[in-house]
Amino acid sequence: MIVRVPVVEKILSINDQLAEENRARIQSAGLFSINLMASPGAGKTSLIEKTLPRLKDKCRVAVIDGDIATSIDSDRAAAAGAQVSIQINTGGDCHLDANMLRGALDQTDLTQFDLLIVENVGNLVCPASFDLGVHKSILIASIPEGDDKPYKYPAMYRGVDVLVVNKIDLLPYVPFRMDYFEHGVQVLNPGVLTFPLSCRTEEGLDAWVDWLFQNAIHPTRNLELET
Fold first, then answer.
1. Would you list the domain boundaries of the chain?
2. Which has more pLDDT, 167 or 93?
3. What is the CATH number of domain 7-219?
């Protein structure tokens, strides 16, 4: 006789419970929080590096970086101006989960910050399934990845609140059909808030930073967190 145990469902159920605890802590602290997701090399850390100097003296930012190994990304965030930068090494896991984030939240006083940026592990599959308990999930797509990613990874594009399209300075040099890409996005996530930008040339960065800043200084106690 073969007994099938719904392991995945159990793991996700436990994760959702812990995410609710994170959600309550973040809400109580009154800070705005985001989960940055992308494939490796799409520009998560570069976007953080370009964002933090623009928020200097405007709001207090904490960054939590997830990676399989090393503290390279958290070191870069600290150098760019994060008031605190915490590294989570997953030891092989291809995503952050609510329990990992809870451990990182334990390491700092959340009430001392206005904005929490969580940089997830570079992956276009697993991060979409694990609620962390933050306000907004943000996906960074990049031009060199190709225009077919919404079609290949629908779960990632369907579940995010904000889409950042990075490296638009490469559009003249890369065979990327923007209309095809946008059609795939709109089918999965109609009307999703989108920021086309380039971390290299800094085109489009102002609109992204303004959105972050307005949310960070807004009284988030009245803002519903994503479930």
1. 7-219
2. 167
3. 3.40.50.300
